[in-house]
C-alpha cells in the first residue's frame, strides 16, 4: 500500500471551531481506501519556516508528500515572498527522491475581517511563486484559489473566522486534491 504524507497547515488539519479534525485525512483515506494510506503531519498556524523544522519528523518510507504552505506566510506576521520561495525549494530538495505535489496558498474570505490579516501583494506573489516553483521542479500544482471558481456565494465555503473551510468547503477541497493524488501515485 502506498503511503502519503500531508504536510501543511490548518487547511489540511480540517480546522473547525478552534480545533484540528481528521476530516481531510479521513476523507482521503476513504476515497483512496485500499490504494493508499494517508498520514497528516500538518501543523495549524505554520509557515514554511516551521515547515522546514518539521522535515525531520517525516518518516523514511513515504511514497508521496503533498506540501501545502503559504497561507500563513502571506499574513502580516508571515515572511517575505522571497523567503517563502527559498523555504519551499528547500522542502522540495529534502524530498527530491519522492513524489511531490505542491499546493498553493489558500485565501481569506474577501467578505470577512480576516482578509485584513493578509498583505494582498505578498499573497499574490506567494501564490504565483508556488506555481512557478512547482513547474520549475516538474511537479503538479494544485491551485486552491479554484475552490471559489463558480461559487456565487463564497461565504458558504468559509467558517465564521473567514479563513477555514466549512463541511462544504472541505468536500470541495477533497474533490480538488484527490484526483491529483491518484494521478501522481499512478505515474
TrEMBL record:
It comes from Lactobacillus kalixensis DSM 16043. This is Arylesterase. Residues 6-171 form the SGNH hydrolase-type esterase domain. InterPro entries: Ester_Hydrolysis_Enzymes (IPR051532), SGNH_hydro (IPR013830), SGNH_hydro_sf (IPR036514). Pfam families: Lipase_GDSL_2.
Amino acid at each position: 500500500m502506498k503511503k502519503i504524507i500531508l504536510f501543511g497547515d490548518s487547511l489540511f488539519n480540517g480546522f473547525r471551531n478552534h480545533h484540528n479534525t481528521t476530516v481531510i485525512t479521513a476523507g482521503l483515506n476513504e476515497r483512496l481506501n485500499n490504494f493508499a494510506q494517508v498520514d497528516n503531519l500538518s501543523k495549524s498556524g505554520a509557515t514554511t519556516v516551521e515547515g522546514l523544522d518539521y522535515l525531520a519528523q517525516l518518516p523514511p518510507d513515504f511514497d508521496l508528500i503533498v506540501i501545502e504552505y503559504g497561507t500563513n506566510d502571506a499574513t502580516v506576521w508571515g515572511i517575505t515572498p522571497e523567503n517563502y520561495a527559498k523555504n519551499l525549494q528547500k522542502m522540495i530538495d529534502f524530498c527530491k527522491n519522492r513524489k511531490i505535489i505542491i499546493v498553493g496558498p489558500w485565501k481569506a474570505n474577501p467578505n470577512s475581517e480576516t482578509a485584513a490579516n493578509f498583505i494582498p501583494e505578498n499573497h499574490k506573489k506567494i501564490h504565483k511563486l508556488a506555481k512557478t516553483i512547482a513547474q520549475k521542479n516538474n511537479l503538479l500544482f494544485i491551485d486552491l484559489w479554484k475552490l471559489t471558481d463558480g461559487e456565487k456565494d463564497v461565504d458558504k465555503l468559509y467558517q465564521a473566522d473567514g479563513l477555514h473551510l466549512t463541511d462544504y468547503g472541505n468536500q470541495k477541497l477533497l474533490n480538488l486534491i484527490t484526483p491529483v493524488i491518484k494521478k501522481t501515485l499512478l505515474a
